[in-house]
Amino acid sequence: MRLALMSDIHSNLQALEACLRHARAQQAQRLGFLGDLVGYGGNPAQVVDRIMLLTEEGAFAIKGNHDAMAVRPPTQATTVGDTSALWTHQQLSAQQRDWLDSLPLTHHLEKLLLVHASLNQPEQWRYVTDERSAGASLDAAAAWPGVRYVLGGHVHEQTLYYRGATQGLMKFAPQAGIAIAVPAHRHWLGTVGSVGQPRDGKSEAMYALVDTERAQLTFHRVPYDHPAAARAIVQAGLPAQFATRLEVGR
């Protein structure tokens, strides 16, 4: 099975559609969305509608922290994130909010375990940014016998860790478009990056493709119309820094 994994879309319809087209060209057979479908961007209702339809056709989706905030936003906006959550909540219908609220925190698929943040108490939305936090997430996978791969998003960067013979974790820097052998005799943890708001200094959208038959993982970068996505943010009256991030990838 060729499984395309997309995370942190952040209401960026242009980036989502570009990644979907790219995944189809890569002969993806199934789609998985790893949380933060909304937040920051200018098209939350359209993104939720698109992904809801895709789940009816066989895709799966899990919940991210921005999805949870959009369902139950803070009563007062004290940060730009709060402002985005309040605005997003108002753009979504009751049906869309109920659907976001119903999403699970994890999805188990054979040897794969998918999560938005860390598998270690996923409801706490912990970031996986180094070997220590990656190890804690991998250790939590022991509750699911047979799981060899933990894949998520949340950090807006593409990274890969594996556990070697010494039980310590090794960090691997993936290159876009280059398939990486991920044999199941090791344990692996990866973050697939952000579709809608990369933060590595590049504007191209991010996602990853898992080939379960070949035991390969490929990280992809996809150019898209980020000026149009930035305009949608400005026209919505959201903080300008959300639009600027799309241009500079930070």
Explain how this protein is built.
The structure is a single chain. The protein starts with a strand and ends with a helix. A six-stranded mixed β-sheet has the order 3-2-1-11-12-9. Strands 4-5-6-10-7-8 form a six-stranded mixed β-sheet. The protein has helices at residues 13-25, 44-56, 65-71, 80-91, 94-102, 131-140, 226-236, 240-248; strands at residues 2-6, 30-33, 60-61, 106-109, 112-115, 149-152, 158-163, 169-172, 180-181, 187-192, 205-211, 216-222. The radius of gyration is 17 Å and the shape is globular. It is of the alpha/beta class and 250 residues long. It has one domain: Purple Acid Phosphatase, chain A, domain 2 (4-Layer Sandwich), CATH 3.60.21.10. Helix 3 packs across helix 4 (80-91), helix 3 packs across helix 5 and helix 7 runs antiparallel to helix 8 (240-248). The longest helix has 13 residues, at 13-25.
